[in-house]
Amino acid sequence: MATPAFDSTVLTRRGVLAAAAGSLLLAGCGPQGQRPDAGGNSSAPGDQNLVVGASLELSGRGAALAVAQRRALEIAAETLNRSGIPVGNLMRSVRLEIRDNGSDLEVAARHAAEMTRAGAHALVGGVLGDTATALAAAAQRLKTPFLALGFSDRIVLPLSDRTFSFKLTPDATDMARRMVDLLESQRVRRVVLLAEDGPHGDSGVRALKDALDRSGVDLARTVRLPGGGQSFRAAAERAVAADPDGVVVWATAPDSGTAARELRRAGHRGALFFDAGAVVDDTLRGANAKAVEGAYAVHPACLGGSALTATSGALVARRDFDYRYTQKHGSSVGFAPYAADALQLLAAAARKATSLDRGRLRAFLQTQMTEGIAGGYAFTADRHGGMEADSLGVYQVSQGGWARYA
């Protein structure tokens, strides 16, 4: 499936985002004047930091995603603190408070309350759908802005109950539409959906069914993966028994890789398709490697280059971030560094709000329209997530790596 070439002469929504990118991604290059030190301590009287509380799944089933997001947060904070964030007449720095929620939604919700009481101006975290949803509910009660890194439309819906939450990951509807285009291009006529337990899987089931209803692809069966660490074998066998041409695995890592292994063991020799939650190194490693070779994934286009012009501020920032990540950790974080964008969005909101007041931060977050490191965002009062649809690309696993397909 081919994608249209980027035409810099046409004014598109994506082009507007790219043009606005410099004000967000280069926010660390603030005006000269009072500057914080690199360690995050403001030189202004008192505690003048922008305090960001992060509840991440650094252990448990979300660790494959959360460890990279913690690193992204730390690199973004270092970048911002090189020159500081101009907020009113002061230069502020970022101070991160990072906690491990152990992939437990109740612990995540408790973290939200504890960090807000301790002075956090905003919250970031929740790489899993259920922990992110729990954090969103807590943030609403606390009236604290929350930027979610997890996959589930319920994180920001219904909007009347989520006015303080913003989601950086792609919407299920956008991923499903791109997935169905891919299925049709591969001449898949009969597909099974294997969806994880929980809110991310729920969103995927709704979105993919709607998208398939408008296509020539038949949904032969929907099978839900069991939660609580149970074996996926029976679910995989049910999926394969429907005799599909292809199987869509709608699950975050490490469940996506495990599901792929069980599907191959159950006899599926057809194509595999993943949503963006699968795209981490863990999916390609060890026992997963043979099972996922040749599989496709819909994921933000930051994974394999950019459609942005070479001179854009967004591309410069994206390359700088990738270089810093590689220097520190020995490998690239090609899969979307949502946490870095979350911190930059907060910094931009604080600068525009001329305040660290939580209510004002929320108000200015919902005016952000920009191209981030992971992709494009356009938050409004009526839309708090997620990434712009045209930020998505298609990738294929080739020789143990993610290669751009379309």
Automatic annotation (TrEMBL):
It holds the Pfam family Peripla_BP_6. Transmembrane segments: none annotated. InterPro entries: BCAA_transport, Leu-bd, Peripla_BP_I. Residues 52-398 form the Leucine-binding protein domain. Signal peptide: none annotated. It comes from the Bacteria. The keyword Disulfide bond does not apply. Keywords: Signal. Belongs to the leucine-binding protein family. This is ABC transporter substrate-binding protein. It comes from Micromonospora robiginosa.
